[in-house]
Each structure stands twice: as structure tokens, then as C-alpha cells.
């Protein structure tokens, strides 16, 4: 667990949860962005437990190919911080192919990590089903494919999709014939525009606000068979079990010809209620992790994470781990003034759906 974990264990005394691991992660040279995301994912308990259950039941450690899934499983199970270098190398390599920025972004990493894990799980599922078909050639197992009776089944829902995936509905209403066209799309996180002295609730309302399409942006209505003025809005059709909110703190400023960090004060509550949903009215969530960007600019700085475990809030800064008071969370809301000595700003928020509010 390391020295930091030992100090924390002593501080908690009898309150230290049995079987829980609190360990810092070594910084292998600008890998704080990776460490902060990994800590947040580790304390996403349903995801961690399902990942370890899959690894224990499906994978054979003796012949398992080393990939992102096996590295994360070892990290979560054993606290093998040496594997972090392997995880970081895998992620950094992929990101470097598509991004030439000098510093890595925690949000890009999270997106890559979740999508890569889903791809690995889907690939292993296809291999397993292919092996089954080898032994039972008369039975076709469907994974988004046509089955022997001609029906089509839904694609595999991996543990990544089960925990993080939600569904958005893009509704467009023709102002001429009132026909509503709806298109669904899935998401693993929500990226929200932010404003000064605002809140997550107001950002979510702006995300679902109605936009009028007119002039050069008119909508082609299939019923009218012509371009028409329309109203468009985005709503959450199916909220995920784990709601990840990315605050868009880095914005390109045309006058400056560069990206700028927005230090805006955005209040994020410990308990969040979604009111702009379709299927599940007023879905309720509880905050359990925050990835924080420290620094004044987008191309330099540091990442830390704050997580909640067994009613205790913990602050992770690479190898260092300490307990903090719940009231300290508000110091990561942002700055009410443009220039402030406080540059520790909440960047990625992790909320878990409360059991009583879930219909699943």
C-alpha cells in the first residue's frame, strides 16, 4: 500500500474499511493525468468489482494476453503500481498518434481508456463465441448478427456500457407541420459548456435548451419535403448508472489564437438530480470522485483527484494520499474572478446513481 496508505490507515484507525486499498500511484514523468483518472475509476466500486469478477472468471492469468484490461485488473486487485507504467504507455501511445499536444488531457485519456476496454471485451466475447460455434456448428450465437432463425439480437453490453453508457435523444420539431424527428445516440460522458458563477444544474439545462434552426441552418423536413424552420433540443433518454460530466474548461480563443483555460466558478453538488430526462424522471446521483486540473493554462499544469470512500473524502496527488474534510470540495468549484491564486478547478465529475432512483 505504501507509506501514504499506512499513514492514512493509522489516521482512520478503527474506521479503516476492511479489504479496501488506498495507494498512491507513482508519477513516471508527466503521468499525473493518468494517475488521477485511474484513482477515480478504482473508486467506482461497481465498475471495479465487475472488472475483477470478469478477470477472475473468464481470464486465465497463465495465458492471458497483457493488455489494458489485464493491467487494470492487476492494479485494482493487487495495487501493482509498476503496472501503471504499462497502462500509461498503452494509453499515451494511442493518444500520441492522434494528438500532437505537448501535454496529455485527462478527459481524452478517460475516453480512450473506456472505449479500448469495451473493444477488448467485445473482441474476447467474439472469440469465445467463435470457439463455441466450432464445437457446436449447428448453433449460431448472435452478437449483433443474424441468428439461425433469421432474427437480429442486440450487440454485446460490456461492463463498460453497463456502468457508463447512457442514451441521448436529439429531437427536432418542424415549425411548419409540427412533426417531431427523434434520433438516439449513446454516450459515455457528457461534455458541458460552462459559464462564470454557474452550476452543474444550469449547465445541464443549457445542454438541453431549445435551439431555433433558421436562415442558412434550416432543417429538411421529410414530411414537408423542403427546408423549414425548426426547433432542436437534446434530452437524456436513458441516464447511465455512473454519470461522468466533463466541464469544458479549455476553449480556443480566436483573438488570442490559442486555447485558454476557463477558471469559471461552477458549483457541483454532492447530490445531483437530473430533471431533463425522458424515461426516468428526476434520476438522483451522488458525487464520488473529481478529477482536478491544477494550473493556469491548458498546455501545462498538474492533475489530482478527490474521491469518496466509506463516507471519507480522500485527496490523491500521485504517490501522496491524505484525508480531507467534505467542506474542502468547494475549493475546487473554480474562481469567481478571472485572476485568482487558486488554480485547482474541478474538471471531470463522477456521479453514481442512487439505488432508490434507478429502475433497472
Automatic annotation (TrEMBL):
<dbReference type="GO" id="GO:0005634">
    <property type="term" value="C:nucleus"/>
</dbReference>
<dbReference type="InterPro" id="IPR018200">
    <property type="entry name" value="USP_CS"/>
</dbReference>
<dbReference type="InterPro" id="IPR038765">
    <property type="entry name" value="Papain-like_cys_pep_sf"/>
</dbReference>
<keyword id="KW-0539">Nucleus</keyword>
<dbReference type="GO" id="GO:0004843">
    <property type="term" value="F:cysteine-type deubiquitinase activity"/>
</dbReference>
<keyword id="KW-0833">Ubl conjugation pathway</keyword>
<keyword id="KW-0449">Lipoprotein</keyword>
<comment type="function">
    <text>Recognizes and hydrolyzes the peptide bond at the C-terminal Gly of ubiquitin. Involved in the processing of poly-ubiquitin precursors as well as that of ubiquitinated proteins. Required for the correct development of pollen.</text>
</comment>
<protein>
    <recommendedName>
        <fullName>ubiquitinyl hydrolase 1</fullName>
        <ecNumber>3.4.19.12</ecNumber>
    </recommendedName>
</protein>
<dbReference type="InterPro" id="IPR001394">
    <property type="entry name" value="Peptidase_C19_UCH"/>
</dbReference>
<comment type="similarity">
    <text>Belongs to the peptidase C19 family.</text>
</comment>
<dbReference type="InterPro" id="IPR050164">
    <property type="entry name" value="Peptidase_C19"/>
</dbReference>
<feature type="domain" description="USP">
    <location>
        <begin position="23"/>
        <end position="354"/>
    </location>
</feature>
<dbReference type="GO" id="GO:0006508">
    <property type="term" value="P:proteolysis"/>
</dbReference>
<dbReference type="GO" id="GO:0005829">
    <property type="term" value="C:cytosol"/>
</dbReference>
<dbReference type="Pfam" id="PF00443">
    <property type="entry name" value="UCH"/>
</dbReference>
<keyword id="KW-0645">Protease</keyword>
<dbReference type="GO" id="GO:0016579">
    <property type="term" value="P:protein deubiquitination"/>
</dbReference>
<keyword id="KW-0378">Hydrolase</keyword>
<feature type="region of interest" description="Disordered">
    <location>
        <begin position="129"/>
        <end position="149"/>
    </location>
</feature>
<keyword id="KW-0519">Myristate</keyword>
<dbReference type="InterPro" id="IPR028889">
    <property type="entry name" value="USP"/>
</dbReference>
